[in-house]
Protein 1
Amino acid sequence: MKKSPVTAITLHRLEGPKADCGIITIDEKYTTSHFLTASLDAAYHCDPKEDRWTWAHELLTRWGRSAPMPGRGYDKTDAHVEWNNGHHWRMRFDLQQHGRDSSGHNLKQALRHALTFYSGRHKPAHMTTEQYRHFIEEVVGDRNMDRAAAILDTCDL
């Protein structure tokens, strides 16, 4: 079964050098950006036919040049991914050098990892079965668990 394609990825770098902080949306028609430094807007445009995951990874890699090295912190970056079938997911991406998070994941891998956790399909090694069950039931809840599972099952990841 073909999975629903991504229609938009919005990234908002909240920490880091002032010139690199801002919001950028990658969608099927164009890329829009809102940076604190207007001269940066011209530098962030992509081919609308290009895969949005690829472009988001390239942007995060570029931003990663000014992010902390692994083990020395991270710059908070919010991500919002939308798919053609109406699903969407928001998350925080802890940006480090090379455009990866503190686990070494790119954005797509980090999202897949988070959804697998929230869907109840993967218990981390540091949690007991009882802790994981409690977290899923009390914090995540059935609605978000089902939503995470639906995204994993029907959306391009």
Protein 2
Amino acid sequence: MSAICDCQRSNVAPYIGFDDVHFRILRDSSSLGQVADWSLNPVIPSRHVPGTNITVTQFMGFGLAQVTWTLRFGCRHQYHALMAKLAQRGTLRVLYGMQSHKGVQKSILDRVYEELPQTQLIGISNVVTYVDGSVECQATFQRAIDPVTRETVVS
């Protein structure tokens, strides 16, 4: 069974995907057709000093950037191929301009894509399987970036 399945390729942007697994990223109908962008939170632990009214707070940098998107697969083969990549790092390819991280631009069949290396698939949830064989799910990806340059930090 091949990881690339012609039944799922979108006519709009057929090369969006994670490594060799292709899917469509669906827009959120409640947000006027927009897609979510990466969230990045600082790591700021606080520790209370016993017997005093002092709390020590430290800025420890930033955690990993995360994004959750609703994905649609044209067939179960592609969905199963993505499931097999859970907890693995790979290259996420999206349409250029649909997210804020700097990636490598690639032009494929008159469309500009952006490749985001060192991206890890960390979760799959809310899976819906349709009678026609298509599958929708929410997938969460994470990656380490420098918040100033928006470029990948390799750990």
